Amino acid sequence: MIRFGSRFYGQLFGLRQNAQLLSLGLIEQGLITGSSFAFTAIVANALGASDFGIYSVAWSFLMLAETSLWGFFGDSLPSTLNKIPVSKAPEARGGLLALSLSASCILAAGFVLAAVVSLRWGNDWFALLVAAGAALIALRAQTMFRRICYLDFQRRPALVSAIVFSVSLVSGGLVLKFANLASPSSAMGVLSAASFLAFLPILRRPVPIKSPERRLLLWLAARLIHTGHWVSLSSALSWLGNLGVIPVTAMLAGLEASGVLRAVQTVVSPMSQANAVVSSVLVPRLAKANRERRPSSPWPAIVIYLIASVPYALTMSLAGTPLLTRLFGPDFAAAGGAVIAVATFGYAIESIRFGLNASMLADGRTRFLFISQCVALSTLAVILPYMSVQFGVLGVVLAMTIANNAGTLFTLTAFICGKSKVGARPYKSPHEKTEGL
Q1: pLDDT at site 420
Q2: What is the mean pLDDT of residues 51-58?
Q3: Cα(276)–Cα(279) distance, integer angstroms
Q4: How many Å separate Cα 74 from the centre of its chain?
């Protein structure tokens, strides 16, 4: 107990030492989450539940591509960059940016191909899918820019990018609504334009970026694939168990039900954003501790994630339903108080898995993340058809909560048993000492 208390205090003290970074991160994520929430509400009001369901289906596939890339260029980066000499940091940043944009262009080509195929059934989906492909490239560019700033502990440029994104997104949504220009494709176009504008602060070069040498670029690509493929696969499975339920709901219960589900997920999403802020500060610290061969426990991280999630869950359980109806419109009244309560507390319990994941990501132990998502997805596949038919949107949310908690239980059991260890090879430089960025 004393040992746990000392480690918990140590991590809290470490976060206090980085209070400025954490506060800027919270402000930044608050801006992005708030503007995304406002944009979603504006678009939902302007489109109605059915058209908003169409937009939500395309948006969910966009998030599948983005979260899959995030597995390679997001959570797995700290453990990878700890293997690169400090003098190579500018080249590493340039290599990461080039690899990230190249990967996003490849996936965006898939959206364009799907748009061409959709012409066989009319023009309704063509513009929407093309806009989604452009949005993927722009989203990946601005996300990678902010991630580079995080890793260099430069929060202010990332905050400027977030401000530009937030203002552009909300302004574009208001223009669509009051100029009667709202459509699923125009909403996706606004998201693409706002993301591109958020990438422009990189022109001021807030962090040093250079073209990487060929050897380093190949090492980065191999290392990211090796470390990130489990994270990417687990992210794709996580999409299937969360946002991927939106198109499934559209097939089982109609586009209107999928629009209602997306609205509920939007209300719950700030909890995930808060956990992402904690990860952006906590994972690099844990990675540094592992590099210095100092033991780190996941339990303080679990407590920190719960502290970030439970208060919001309590608040939204009480005020979520009237807020949802007022902001999104009467078409979304199908989401009752029970739906909001189940969704928010399900995410709060899942914070346990966030804490365990933070420790594993910091040490490059990513295989069990994938296996836990397999457990969650298998559980969802078994219970979702029955729950959705019997209880509608409430059944869908309840099935998602049960499945995510099954994955959390598996991760917790695996961590207690101590069966998740993956090694990592450093970038070898003949003349320099290997250090973190």
Answers
A1: 44
A2: 88
A3: 5
A4: 9
Say whether pLDDT at 147 is over 90.
no
Give the separation between CA 122 and CA 112, rounded to whole angstroms: 15
Q: What's the number of CA atoms in the CB half-sphere (13 Å) around residue 183?
A: 11
Mean pLDDT for the stretch of residues 281-298: 67
Task: Provide the residue type at 38 as one letter.
Answer: A
Q: Is 297 exposed, middle or buried (0-12, 13-18, 19+ CB in 10 A)?
A: middle
Mean pLDDT, residues 150-169 = 83
Question: Which residue, chain included where needed, has tokens 């399900």?
Answer: 346
* 3-class SS letters over the chain: CHHHHHHHHHHHHHHHHCHHHHHHHHHHHHHHHHHHHHHHHHHHHHHHHHHHHHHHHHHHHHHHHHHHHHHHHCCCHHHHHCCCCHHHHHHHHHHHHHHHHHHHHHHHHHHHHHHHHHHHHCCCCHHHHHHHHHHHHHHHHHHHHHHHHHHCCCHHHHHHHHHHHHHHHHHHHHHHHHCCCCCHHHHHHHHHHHHHHHHHHHHHCCCCCCCCCHHHHHHHHHHHHHHHHHHHHHHHHHHHHCCCHHHHHHHHHCHHHHHHHHHHHHHHHHHHHHHHHHHHHHHHHHHHHHHCCCCCCCHHHHHHHHHHHHHHHHHHHHHHHHHHHHHHCHHHCCCCHHHHHHHHHHHHHHHHHHHHHHHHHHCCCCHHHHHHHHHHHHHHHHHHHHHHHHHCHHHHHHHHHHHHHHHHHHHHHHHHHCCCCCCCCCCCCCCCCCCCC
Q: In this model, does residue 188 exceed pLDDT 90? A: yes
Distance CA 435, CA 87 (A): 9
For residue 133 the two structure tokens come to 């492909």
Angle at 146 between CA 145 and CA 148, to 5 degrees: 65
pLDDT above 80: residue 209: no
Taking phi over 0 as left and psi of -120 to 50 as alpha, with beta for the rest, 424 belongs to: beta
pLDDT tens by residue, 88-115: 777 877 888 888 889 899 999 999 999 9
The pLDDT of residue 436 is: 40
Q: Could you tell me the two tokens for 359? A: 């420790």
Measured distance CA(22)–CA(244) in Å, rounded: 31
Half-sphere exposure of 157 (CA within 13 A, CB side): 23
Tokens 């928010």, residue?
344
Least confident range from 34-48, 73-87, 109-123: namely 73-87
